[in-house]
Amino acid sequence: MHATRKFLSFVLAFLCLGPLLATASMGQAEAAMIFVTNEKDDTVSVVDSQSLKLVNTIQVGHRPRGIIITPDKKDIIVCLGDDAQLAVIDAQSMKVKRLLDSGPDPELLNISPDGKTLYIANEDDSLVTVMDYKTGQVTQEIPIGVEPEGMGVSPDGSIVVATSESTSMAHFIDTKTYKVIANILVDSRPRYADFTHDGAYVWVTSEVGGTVSVIDAKTHKIVKVIDFEIPGVRPELIGPVGINFTTDGKRAFICLGKANRLAVVDTSTYKVIDYVLVGQRPWHAALSPDGTKLYSANGLTNDITVVDVASLRAEKSVPVGRLPWGLVVRP
Amino acid sequence: MSQGLMRARWAVLIGFLALSMPCALAAGQTKFWNTTGDKIIKFELAPAGSGNWGPDQCKNDKDNSVDDDERLQIKDVATGSYDARMTFEDGRVCTAKAIQIVQGKIFSLERGDLKDCTNPH
After folding, report:
1. Residues 6+ apart with CB under 8 A from B96
2. What are the boundaries of each domain within chain A?
3. Which of A34, A179, A289, B44 is the most buried (most CB within 10 A)?
4. Topology, domain A102-222
């Protein structure tokens, strides 16, 4: 009798707790973490994407700017401009676990699709540093134009496109030979390069020029220059920097800097569909893992803005540290 | 000259170099980090309260200006308290009072630090 009661209690408890446990585990699976570099605080803020609460502030080195997540989603790598280093943060424990010597003033970086090779823009010495991620050894230093920043990697990893701000060029680098195979002149101060999902085109933003150049990845010809007009905003305030293609590749969000907006561009017609007002001076943004939300880092309002990708509405701003610069989302 | 004297001179020279090199390496450049959000085309410093404005430090930059979020090398300024006067690209002139500058270090100014701004063009 006693044993039967005990068994029934166990069954009852399981039936009651089961749905709760299932909900909790589903919630955990859905909760992504947004990692934001705060250039002036020497920190990375971590924001829970569901509660939109700040859950952690990680002390890293000096002047954190460029930030990426490795393809296996295990590590987050941050450029520390004033330390000539990269900080590697464990994406789960949120602790800095490695420091890698990157060469002077790393500003932005990218990683090969296989997660083995890092490409780092060294702003002060006009180099792209190539690093074996596992060993931390620098394997190549590729001279390009003055003030490198953008670092796009093709989906198959065979080409890297680096931009040089002062030279106003996009440099195509073959990753087998590490030779520059094409130098493409674009509008003034190119700061970011990204390949379309199919690898056919490279989009390059020009901050001072106020445009985006779309370059054919095979012929290296500029096929389109996209420009922006916002009623009531002076043209010189429109400074395109970051690019994010939607998951289906049909649209691109362009961060417009001091215009305080994200432009939404149709990738087949190159027409601007809308401008989304966010915080002040967004330079970079990141998509949620399911592609439904976009988060912009707003450098002058010290916050991030959550944008609904379907409705193109800014939903909420979340305070982070001082001078937020870049961000990634860990699933 | 005797060999002993030569050796002594070399030892003094090597000792001097060994002592002075770390100091030289440690002394970085003094830099202004523009975090005002706007491009500055003229940047002057004066000892706090003196009104004795020094040369335009923007001349130290290759394009004679310092963009938003960029650094500007500051030359011939000793550690101390200074007022800064800056002209922005849109014509505004603003000042910042009693900022602390340490030789070899980076200092920054934000929008909130700016006072007495004139109107833009």
Report:
1. B83, B84, B86, B109, B113, B114, B115
2. 102-222
3. A34
4. Methylamine Dehydrogenase; Chain H (2.130.10)
CA distances A311 to A13, A275, A293, Å, are: 43, 12, 10
Average pLDDT, chain A: 93
A28 confidence band (pLDDT: 50, 70, 90): very low
Interchain contact, B69 vs A40, CB within 8 Å: no
Q: Which residues contact A109 (CB under 8 A, 6 or more apart)?
A: A66, A68, A77, A79, A86, A102, A118, A119, A120, A121, A151
pTM of the entire structure?
A: 0.87
Name every chain B residue with its beta carbon within 8 A of the beta carbon of A40. 35, 108
Q: What is the pLDDT of residue B28?
A: 85
Interface of B with A (CB under 8 A): 35, 37, 62, 68-69, 106, 108, 111
Nearest residue of A to residue B63, measured between CA atoms: A166
Task: Mutation target for A interface from B32, B33, B62, B69: give the one with most A CBs within 10 A.
Answer: B69
Tell whether A300 is within 8 A of chain B (Cβ): yes
Q: Whose structure tokens read 């004795």?
A: B52
> Which residues 263-282 on chain A approach chain B with CB closer than 8 angstroms?
280-281
User: How confident is the model over A252-311, as pLDDT tens digits?
Assistant: 999 999 999 999 999 999 999 999 999 999 999 999 999 999 999 999 999 999 999 999
pLDDT for residue A124: 84
Q: Do A56 and A82 meet the contact criterion of CB atoms below 8 Å apart? A: no
3-state DSSP helix/strand/coil % of chain B, to nearest 5? 25, 35, 40
Give residue B21's pLDDT. Answer: 45
Tally Cβ neighbours within 10 Å of residue B54: 16
Query: What residue ranges define each of the domains in chain B, with the CATH number in brackets?
Result: 31-113 (2.60.40.2890)
ipTM: 0.83
Matching residue, tokens 């094409």 = A182
Q: What pLDDT does A123 receive?
A: 85
Q: Is the pLDDT of residue A53 over 60?
A: yes
